[in-house]
Amino acid sequence: MPQIAQIAEIWSSQLFWLLITFGFVFFVIGKGMLPRVMDTVGMRDAQIASDLAAAQSARDAADQAEEAWRMRENANREAAQDLVGKAKAKAQKSTETKLAKVQAVIDTQLEEAEARINASRAEAAAEIETVAAEAAQDIAARLANVSVTKTAAKSAVKEAMRRG
Amino acid sequence: MAQASGKVDPMYQFTVEPLLGETWNIAGYNIAFTNSALWMTITAVALFIFMLGGMKRELVPGRWQMTVETFTGFIDDMLEANVGKEGRKYVPYIFSLFMFILFANLLGLLPVGLIGVHPFTFTSHFTVTGVLAIMSFSIVLIVGFWKHGLHFFSLFVPHGTPLPMIPILFPIELISFMVRPFSLALRLFVAMMAGHVLLKVLSGFVINGWNAGAGYGLLVGVPSFILMVGISALEILVAGIQAYVFALLASLYINDAENLH
């Protein structure tokens, strides 16, 4: 076993070169290079974390904006519906008033026309009475040679007309 | 290695040979640049090159940078899970330990023998694993006494121990604590050595079987070779697991010192 057989002659050289090489590894690599590698990893982790945080806050902002937009949108829709309702009500009202006005005009016209008709009917009836009375006077004078006064003829006609 | 006689010495691979400066000395101690030192250097350089891929510092990492960050994150998570927030300051040490052992184990398994280079796994030497274990254990002791002072000795008295049991439990806990650096060092050393010895023994079966004739070759050599393929895969797994176990235990021991109970 050379490890034991040679120990007396090699231990000092093994120790010396191990201290030099391991010292190099520890001070140059362990103390010099390793912290920078770990810094890089730490920086990357921090970058990823901050990016994630930024993404999260952007998402939150977007959510808030969407919420605000939705609320505004709802309000706008309500306002629009309100407006439409009001316009509808207004239109209905104006239509009703117009209709009422027109109806009133038509009614008055109708009344006037009826009055006119009634008047003309009454006139016509009166005329017919006069004509009938004169005709009755005339008929009585011609057929029976009886002279009937105008008033008597008139009342007789009235009597006859009432009976129909 | 197959020698002239056709025999394979499974232990020869662990021999340390000076390559340069056989006579270099510091205060009388030899510091020759050996094949072991060469592989330590290769490990350190390979790890350096590997880490360069993690230095691109791009926001969207490529594959290489991703791999480096996976390893750093792995150690970071391990310390966070075992030690907690205070564990972060040990990441450089545990990461160096883990990657150094992992690269050493894996580089030692490279089939560079095919091109005539002798691969050498320096983690199969307890002179190396011992130093790494002692370093880790020293950190535990220093941190423990620095943070808790003499109160650190309460580590050896588990919570809720009845008073009469303390004299018995204290030595047991103390011994189990003192054994830690040895178990840490021996586990890695033995695991790496055993795997390499096994592979060498099996390769000896393959070579000697075919040398003894086609019948032996088919009977012994071919099954041994198939077994070697499987065990090589297992060794790659062991290389990772042992590096992980070393780093995990070191961080668990640091946790003891950092968060006393």
Automatic annotation (TrEMBL), chain A:
Domain of life: Bacteria
Compartment(s) of residence: Cell membrane; Endomembrane system
Membrane topology note: Single-pass membrane protein
Membrane-spanning ranges: 15-34
UniProt entry keywords in alphabetical sequence: ATP synthesis, Cell membrane, CF(0), Hydrogen ion transport, Ion transport, Membrane, Transmembrane, Transmembrane helix, Transport
InterPro entries found in the cross-reference section: ATP_synth_b/b'su_bac/chlpt (IPR002146), ATP_synthase_B_chain (IPR050059)
Keyword Ion transport: yes
GO cellular component: endomembrane system; plasma membrane; proton-transporting ATP synthase complex
Molecular-function annotations in GO: proton-transporting ATP synthase activity, rotational mechanism; proton-transporting ATPase activity, rotational mechanism
Pfam families registered for this protein in UniProt: ATP-synt_B
Entry function: Component of the F(0) channel, it forms part of the peripheral stalk, linking F(1) to F(0). The b'-subunit is a diverged and duplicated form of b found in plants and photosynthetic bacteria.
Self-association state and partner proteins as the record states: F-type ATPases have 2 components, F(1) - the catalytic core - and F(0) - the membrane proton channel. F(1) has five subunits: alpha(3), beta(3), gamma(1), delta(1), epsilon(1). F(0) has three main subunits: a(1), b(2) and c(10-14). The alpha and beta chains form an alternating ring which encloses part of the gamma chain. F(1) is attached to F(0) by a central stalk formed by the gamma and epsilon chains, while a peripheral stalk is formed by the delta and b chains.
Identification of the protein by name: ATP synthase subunit b
UniProtKB/TrEMBL annotation, chain B:
Membrane topology recorded in Swiss-Prot or TrEMBL: Multi-pass membrane protein
One GO CC annotation: plasma membrane
Pfam families per record: ATP-synt_A
InterPro entries assigned: ATP_synth_F0_asu (IPR000568), ATP_synth_F0_asu_bact/mt (IPR045083), F0_ATP_A_sf (IPR035908)
Chief site of localization: membrane
Task performed by this protein: Key component of the proton channel; it plays a direct role in the translocation of protons across the membrane.
Protein name: ATP synthase subunit a
Organism: Aurantiacibacter marinus
